[in-house]
Specification:
Length: 119
């Protein structure tokens, strides 16, 4: 299970890196000498990430709505449902690979409907 979660995390990060918005190099950043390598992301990007589809977590893609997804009951008529969510206040953007384009890093939590929740 740990290997599957690690693979899902790596895949999620890869998807986010591939889907990051392109930035223009025509405007020089202001005072980069004292700027951190990564910064908090803007509200529009937060909304976009909170409503993206992620794969590799469950058999089918998981599309978050406002940062949350809930699947069908594990057992027909049961109360236990798988769920996935965006971890609030842990989303950073920055140029992670030195290509001049900002990438976004987020963490998701996942619960199979039982007593455990995984990051």
């Amino acid at each position: 299970m740990t290997g599957k979660l690690l693979l899902a995390g790596i895949f999620t990060l890869s998807v986010l890196l591939a889907c990051s918005p392109q930035t223009s190099n025509s405007v020089a950043p202001a005072n980069t000498a004292n700027s951190p390598a990564a910064s908090r992301v803007s509200i529009p990007l937060t909304a976009a990430v909170a409503n993206m589809a992620y794969s590799g977590i469950h058999d089918d893609d998981v599309t978050l709505t406002d940062g949350y997804w809930e699947g069908e009951p594990v057992v027909a008529g049961g109360a236990s449902r798988p769920s996935v969510g965006l971890i609030d206040d842990f989303m950073l953007a920055g140029d992670l690979d030195g290509d001049g384009t900002d990438e976004v890093v987020v963490f998701l939590w996942e619960s199979s409907g039982g007593s455990g929740t995984y990051i």
